[in-house]
Design brief:
Number of helices: 14
CATH class of the largest domain: Mainly Alpha
Number of strands: 0
Radius of gyration: 21 Å
Largest sheet: none
Shape: globular
Structural class: mainly alpha
CATH topology of the largest domain: Growth Hormone, Chain: A
Length: 408
């Protein structure tokens, strides 16, 4: 069951489905287009994308704050249009500098759009239902990415400049259509400016929330595994057939589509959310250990079975992390500050996209089996640390409420 309840949750899902189809096509084909048809080197492409996500991670917080102050629906619509314009600008890019500028604009808008959409969800959905609705949206996004990947694969098969340009046009149009869908949602009232003497960007002074974001960022380093590291590991270090790369991606996508909502229903409170993140760390450690074993022996089928087992453990950890972290990020954000808090929490995704490929290729491809164990222990430690970090954040929130009551 991946169709969310009628009303704002379903409208949000339709908007995200639309632009995730375009994004899926873009992710599959963009790197090859930039290198084969624009003439950029892989280093230039990597540098441009890294710089883009770095800038986006910094500006996500003020853009989230803008969503709080001006209303998340209007800001989300504006940033969806701006993202479409950024994607369309790739149609005319012919050299490195314009590519870098377009990549920065794209990443900034994506980070801000994510924060604004999360604030919009928080404003339109009852507190107790936010994590469940977020799980529906994640399932919808994965379904859209799968459809988009098939479209991008068609462009790769045709392998002509017009085919790749059509992908960018589809992605740009998907964001514009998504903006129109967001306009159909009810408005969420803007938050008044902070009183004199209080910081506008309160999240930057919230140390427990910063620790939680850091721990979540470490956990999010699973993101480049299936898209980059596992394919390289499979080809270079295992005897498994190369088509297993596609099988593992399909397994991951379908699992999230089919089971993410069920996993999210296990979250009923901050405590249960923190415990689920801790279990996610255990599952990811187990996945890393299994992946490390896949390089042993010369049997193609044994290697394939081991890789499948690792991928199952990894996606279980991924779904538990998603459900737990969504509840934590929403529930610990003060009323009226969801935009800036979600923007700050979302920097973890940008950092994982930016630094993850370099860190994980060094660990896994460079170090081999010891690298897998180190990565697994990092996941385990970050997951275990989430429980005391959430307790600290709850104590801080309770003390803040008490201080306000005494001051009144």
């Amino acid at each position: 069951m991946i169709i969310p309840p009628a009303g704002p949750p379903r409208q949000l899902a339709q908007a995200q489905l639309t632009n995730s189809i375009g994004d899926g096509a873009y992710y599959v084909s963009s790197a090859l287009y930039f290198t084969l048809f624009i003439g950029l080197s892989p280093t230039e492409v990597g540098l441009g994308l890294t710089l883009g996500w770095a800038v986006g991670s910094v500006l996500g917080v003020p853009l989230g704050h803008l969503a709080d102050r001006r209303g998340p629906r209007g800001v989300a619509v504006l940033l969806a249009v701006a993202t479409g314009v950024a994607v369309a600008s790739f149609l005319v890019v012919r050299s490195f500098l314009p590519f870098m500028l377009a990549a920065c604009l794209y990443s900034i808008c994506q980070c801000g759009l994510g924060a604004a959409r999360q604030a919009l969800l928080a404003g339109l959905v009852d507190r107790g239902k936010r994590t469940e609705v977020r799980a529906y949206l994640q399932s919808t996004v994965n379904a859209g990415l799968a459809v988009g990947a098939a479209i991008g694969g068609l462009a790769l098969a045709i392998d002509t400049r017009p085919a790749f340009l059509a992908v960018f046009a589809v992605d740009a149009a998907s964001f514009l259509l998504s903006a129109l869908m967001l306009l159909r949602l009810p408005t969420v009232p803007p938050t008044p400016a902070a009183p004199a003497g209080e910081p506008a960007l309160a999240v930057l002074r919230d140390k427990p929330y910063a620790l939680i974001t850091l721990l979540n960022t470490v956990m999010l380093f699973y993101m480049p595994l299936l898209s980059l590291v596992i394919p390289l590991w499979l080809v270079q270090r295992t005897a498994a057939p190369h088509w297993m790369v596609s099988a593992l991606l399909v397994l991951n996508t379908l699992s999230v589509v089919l089971f993410q909502v069920r996993v999210a229903k296990r979250v009923t409170s901050l405590d249960s959310a923190a415990r689920l993140v801790r279990l996610a760390g255990v599952a990811m450690l187990a996945a890393c250990a299994v992946f490390a074993f896949s390089g042993a022996g010369s049997s193609a089928w044994l290697a394939g079975i081991v890789l499948l087992a690792g991928a199952i453990l990894q996606v279980v950890g991924e779904m538990m992390l998603g459900a737990g972290s969504w509840e934590i990020s929403f529930d610990l954000a003060p009323a009226g500050k969801q935009g800036q808090y979600q923007g700050f929490f979302g920097t973890g995704t940008a950092i994982a996209r930016m630094a993850g490929p370099l860190v994980l290729t060094t660990l896994i491809i460079g170090w081999g089996t010891p690298g897998w164990i180190v990565l697994g222990l990092l996941f385990l430690g970050a997951g275990a640390g989430m429980v005391p970090a959430v307790r600290w954040a709850r104590r801080r929130a309770a003390n803040s409420v008490e201080a306000v009551r005494v001051g009144a």
